[in-house]
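Here is one chain, start to finish.
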Amino acid sequence: MTRLPLLRQTHPFRFLDEASLLDDPGGIIGRRLFHADEFYFPGHFPGDPIVPGVLLLEAMAQLSRAYLNARHGTIRHGTLAKVDSATFHRIVRPGECVQFRATLVRTDQGLAGESSQYYAFKCGAHIGRERVARAELWLHEAWSPACDFRSNTERGEGNGC
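Its structure:
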């Protein structure tokens, strides 16, 4: 896997350490090591730290967004629009590394007309061979001027996004 600057999110709200496109044209994999000093562990839960399920969903959404941005070649603006289903199979603890996978399964212009697009992904999360969670989610993407994620040197510019 390689470190890819394919997201608008930064620390402390980026929940992927690495991501890599798969040979399969509709897929991407990523991973995240959840460190014991993460800001949310002291309150979730005192004496019994657990990675919040919503953060596992956020990691899946970020991985799906990284896939779209890589395919477009720019960092585009959009949001998580819908979670069709989500199932959590196992608790994730501090110090565990979760592998995520997202696969594009459908696109739809929906009711928004030509100014936006919706993308459906099937996502999964595993620790080794053990399933942690799975979800089906939709991302919304508004077509607007986007930020190019190439390096400043590649763009010939001094300032990035």
